[in-house]
Here is the input.
Amino acid sequence: MPSSARARSASVRRNRRIWDRQSRAYDRRHAAALGGRNALAWGLFRIPESRAQLLGPVQGRRILELGCGAARWSIALSRRGARAIGLDLSMAQLARARELKRSARSSLPLVRASAEQLPFADESFDLAFSDWGASTFADPRPMIPECARILRTGGRLVLVTGNPWSAVVLDPRSGRFRHRLHRPYFTLHRLDDSPMAPVEYRLPYADWFTLFRQNGFEVERLEEPRPAPRARSSYLDRDGHRFARSWPLETIWSVRKRSPTPRPRSRPRARSAPKEPISGHAAR
Ligand SMILES: C[S@@+](CC[C@H](N)C(=O)[O-])C[C@H]1O[C@@H](n2cnc3c(N)ncnc32)[C@H](O)[C@@H]1O
Here is the structure.
């Protein structure tokens, strides 16, 4: 195995272990921000989809959520008639999703896998999205080609994740945003600041554009949402809120697959990829 692939699978193992361990605490802390009428909302400041209009019509659409966590998004989309699937790496996160599914009487399929190697047939989804899920914690270099493979031509990918700039000004020792540059911009990729925290990924904007274009995607929207003066986030302390008013902490991508993807020779494929687009591998 090449050393980059070894590092990647070590990151996936570590992220699975850490998300299994922190799932309960994460859910307790953010449940109110993520659930109820916030289930269909994006990012640190929970921008409602009714305002952001990132997904478009969902009725009858085959939709994959990448890194669904407790699957609040996917459960809510299923209720609106989408043929959604929630995918996540962590058993504990999926266990929480099953609890929420039961109380919502939802039949949403849940799949345990890494977004870096998707166990689905080519061209089997109309839309894939991630709200600070695999968009942040999976390596985009294998994930974006996989998204291109499983989306039909004309399908859309929506990613909400950390802003590359914010990674430069994040002090790795304190975990706070500072008015200082803490790491080089051009080499942004894998962020591994503490063995106790999951590995995260950021790319410079030019690298995102190249990656999208190489995989047949056209960028339709790139946004850096600025929170309203009184907006609050369960993910930030007071300094973080102040910071977010002046500097971007988040990035929103909406890209569309314009052409069939050229297949790289060593494209990773699950041998057991189901023949039917939406079935199998369910962790229900
Ligand atoms: C911050 S949570 C976000 C989940 C959901 N959007 C929410 O807000 O509850 C990040 C999720 O990404 C999942 N994740 C991390 N790495 C992943 C990967 N390579 N593939 C799929 N999911 C991954 C984690 O297990 C975790 O459930």
